[in-house]
């Protein structure tokens, strides 16, 4: 899953693709590099980000989604917590709703997904972006994230969403310390055991910089790859990344290594 941030303030690439032409060009490049899905977002979720109005968010993402969906090279996902933005994005050609609030901010999002037959990614976040990094605490981060995702999956299914269309995401960096992120990655198999595809979004996140001697956003690709390879080995199946080519190569090699079938007869 390649990230297309149509925002001025995303934590690692804010402002680079705010212009629709630049965002489309970036999306096409990510498809050429091997992305199966493009995750288009018009509002940053970084800690303390300024909220964006519904009209502004729609204006940012819709022209980009329309053009990328027409091109047909990849499935389009809309990264939003707003019902009206998700509805417009699905009409414009998106087929997956990536809601970092897991339908908590707008519960009617579940009915929209059910009615349209779209897929959805439900992510764990402690509270909301503005305050999530203020001293996050858990008794056992993995059990709590797992219980949350199970509850959100049950909610989605009760709203009429086919369970087969739901992906789950532990929400790396969303209300978590470095140690919380590492514990979730270490015990990712417990999240995979829920039985739905698991999405991991560790790309360029701050814990990678902290662990590697204070690297800034543009220098976190090696850490991103290390995390994704370990997550693959523990059963994750979707990797949300900014740097598609390099992650795709690393994951192809890692997948060939862990699979018992790859290479047979070759
Ligand atoms: N992370 C970000 C945004 N959306 N969605 C899922 N499912 N999982 C994630 O880990 C995730 C996500 C944050 O990354 P980015 O989009 O690059 O930054 P920003 O929110 O500042 O735009």
Please render the helix and strand layout as text:
Elements: E1 2-5, H1 20-32, E2 37-41, H2 54-71, E3 75-79, H3 83-91, E4 96-99, H4 109-116, E5 119-123, H5 141-158, E6 166-169, H6 178-186, H7 188-192, E7 199-200, H8 206-211, H9 221-233, E8 238-239, H10 244-258
Parallel strand pairs: 1-2, 2-3, 3-4, 4-5, 5-6, 7-8
Helix pairs in contact: 1-2, 2-3, 9-10
Bound molecules: 6-hydroxymethylpterin-diphosphate (HH2).
Keywords:
alpha/beta; TIM Barrel; 8 strands; globular; 10 helices; 266 residues; six-stranded parallel sheet; two-stranded parallel sheet; 12% strand; binds 6-hydroxymethylpterin-diphosphate
Structure description:
There is one protein chain. 43% of the residues lie in helices and 12% in strands. By secondary structure, the chain is α/β, with parallel strands linked by helices. The chain has one domain: Alpha-Beta Barrel (TIM Barrel). Strands 1-2-3-4-5-6 form a six-stranded parallel sheet, with helices on one face. The longest helix has 18 residues, at 54-71. The protein is globular and about 40 Å long. It starts with a strand and ends in an 8-residue tail after the last helix. Bound molecules: 6-hydroxymethylpterin-diphosphate (HH2). 6-hydroxymethylpterin-diphosphate is lined by residues 3, 5, 7, 10-12, 41, 44-46, 79, 98, 100, 121, 123, 169, 171-172, 199, 201, 240.
């Amino acid at each position: 899953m390649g990230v297309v941030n149509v925002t001025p303030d995303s934590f690692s690439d804010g402002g680079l693709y705010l212009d629709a032409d630049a965002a489309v060009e970036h999306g096409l490049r990510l498809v050429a590099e091997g992305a199966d899905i493009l995750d288009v977002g018009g509002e940053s979720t970084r800690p303390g980000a300024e909220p964006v109005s519904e009209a502004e968010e729609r204006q940012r993402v819709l022209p980009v989604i329309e053009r990328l969906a027409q091109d047909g090279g990849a499935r389009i996902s809309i990264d939003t917590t707003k019902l009206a933005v998700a509805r417009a994005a699905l009409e414009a050609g998106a087929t997956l709703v990536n809601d970092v609030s897991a339908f908590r901010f707008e519960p009617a999002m579940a009915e929209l997904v059910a009615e349209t037959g779209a897929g959805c990614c439900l992510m764990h976040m402690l509270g909301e972006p503005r305050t999530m990094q203020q001293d996050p605490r858990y008794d056992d981060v993995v059990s709590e994230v797992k219980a949350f995702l199970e509850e959100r999956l049950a909610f989605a299914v009760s709203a009429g969403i086919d369970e087969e269309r739901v992906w789950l995401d532990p929400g790396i960096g969303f209300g978590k310390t470095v140690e919380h992120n590492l514990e979730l990655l270490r015990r990712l198999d417990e999240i995979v055991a829920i039985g739905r595809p698991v999405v991991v979004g560790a790309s360029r996140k701050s814990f990678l910089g902290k662990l590697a001697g204070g690297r800034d956003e543009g220098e976190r690709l090696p850490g991103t790859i290390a995390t994704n390879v370990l997550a693959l080995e523990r059963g994750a199946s979707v990797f949300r990344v900014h740097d598609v080519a390099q992650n795709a190569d690393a994951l192809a090699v890692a997948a060939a290594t862990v699979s018992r079938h790859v290479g047979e007869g070759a």
